[in-house]
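Recall that a protein's primary structure is simply its ordered list of amino acids. Everything else, from secondary elements to tertiary packing, is in principle encoded there. The following example makes that idea concrete.
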Amino acid sequence: MNDYIATFHTHLAAIMAHRALSALNISARMMPVPRALSSSCGTCVRYSAEDANTQAMGEDCESVFMVHPGKKEEYELIYSQE
């Protein structure tokens, strides 16, 4: 099980992704974007899953990062909308 953080262009997109993940029985929560990451709206979704489930993020997803836990969390970009 891995932890992921998805960032979005809009707050509504974050809400919709949170709902989509919850419908897939994936534990997810909305939160402010960590300072180490950037986002257009300042809201992200952090979730735990076997894979990134980028298909549930919607078209307004900015990026998805895998969280590497430790004393100071590190983030690995695994998806970016460009």
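Strands lie at 2-8, 28-32, 43-49, 61-68, 74-80. The two ends are 27 Å apart (CA to CA).
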